Automatic annotation (TrEMBL):
SUPFAM superfamilies with a match to the protein in the record: Trimeric LpxA-like enzymes (SSF51161)
Keywords attached to this entry: Acyltransferase, Amino-acid biosynthesis, Transferase
Residue stretches making up the Serine acetyltransferase N-terminal domain: 71-125
Keyword Cytoplasm: no
Record Pfam families: SATase_N
One Gene Ontology biological process: cysteine biosynthetic process from serine
Organism: Pedobacter paludis
Organism domain of life: Bacteria
Keyword Acyltransferase found: yes
Gene Ontology annotations for the cellular component aspect, listed alphabetically: cytoplasm
Single annotated GO MF: serine O-acetyltransferase activity
Protein name (Swiss-Prot/TrEMBL): Serine acetyltransferase
Length: 270
């Protein structure tokens, strides 16, 4: 991360910015999450207006961060932070769909509150969704700092540019990679160790779609690796554990390995 920061300055040595530390940026995002989902199982905001009324401090902090990080004029920074702020009610709604997906999809989840407070998958999704909003607003570097913070804390690496639908479910969030140009539909479930990656990492492919498209209601079990920008997983499909897939599959498919497993009983018989 430090390298990234130095390179960023190095790219434009004359830039007059002093980006707040990664900790300040991550703390801001943590405050956003805590604001939306405080001590109880989640504050119910009566209306978008009520939510925004209480979120004014978050907007002010974001303004401070982006005005130090971007080469935007003061008024543009204010407009950008206000646009983020305007989308908070929608962020809250979408995160609630993710909580529902995890709570209802996992028999081990005893409450929505448990999902919010203890699931690394939900933590990573929160940071991804905040970062994605900032990315869409054209804010440089901060989205990546946020998703890399979540990555370092959870092992779940979601690029801020990836597009992910509502009701996103990650269970046992660890070792998951979702690349920059991945597109994921609604009600998708991922287990630990899943990679949605590129088939080639040549630098000239920057900006080209390199990562898979995953349809609605797809379940991808642990350790599966799906690669390639043209790889499409049709909706309602199931990808079994440890599957290595570099080609598209039709909707309602099941892709699984059928390895030959030799089981030998080593108990000595006299
Ligand atoms: C997730 C993944 O494929 O990463 C490889 C490379 N960073 C890229 O984005 O293409």
């Amino acid at each position: 991360m430090e390298d990234q920061f130095l390179n960023y300055l190095f790219d434009k040595p004359n830039r007059k910015v002093s980006i707040p530390s990664n900790e300040i940026i991550s703390e801001w995002a943590k405050k956003v999450v805590h604001f939306l989902f405080p001590e109880s199982s989640g504050k119910i905001f009566a209306s978008a207006e009520e939510l925004k009324k209480y979120a004014i401090e978050l907007e002010h902090d974001l303004f401070g961060i982006i005005s130090k990080s971007c080469e935007l004029q003061h008024t543009d920074c204010k407009e950008t932070s206000m646009r983020f702020f305007d989308q908070l009610p929608e962020l809250y709604r979408i995160l609630n769909t993710d909580i529902t997906a995890i709570y209802e999809g996992d028999p081990a989840a005893v409450s929505r509150f448990e999902v919010v407070r203890s699931y690394p998958g939900f933590y990573a999704i929160c940071f991804y969704r905040i970062a994605h909003l900032l990315f869409n607003l054209g804010i440089p570097i901060i989205p990546r700092i946020l998703t890399e913070h979540a990555h370092s804390r959870t092992g779940v690496d979601i690029h801020p540019a990836a597009i992910i639908g509502e009701y996103f479910y990650i269970d046992h969030g660890t070792g998951i990679v979702i690349g920059e140009t991945a597109v994921i539909g609604q009600y998708v479930k991922l287990y630990q160790g899943v990679t949605l990656g590129a088939l080639s990492v040549r630098k000239v492919l920057a900006g080209v779609k390199r990562h898979p498209t995953v349809g609605d209601r797809v379940v991808i079990y642990s350790g599966a690796t799906i690669l390639g920008g043209e790889t499409v997983i049709g909706h309602d499909s199931i990808i079994g554990g440890n599957v290595w897939l570099t080609e598209s599959i039709e909707p309602f498919s099941t892709a699984y390995h059928s390895p030959i497993i030799n089981i030998r009983n080593t108990k000595q018989t006299s």
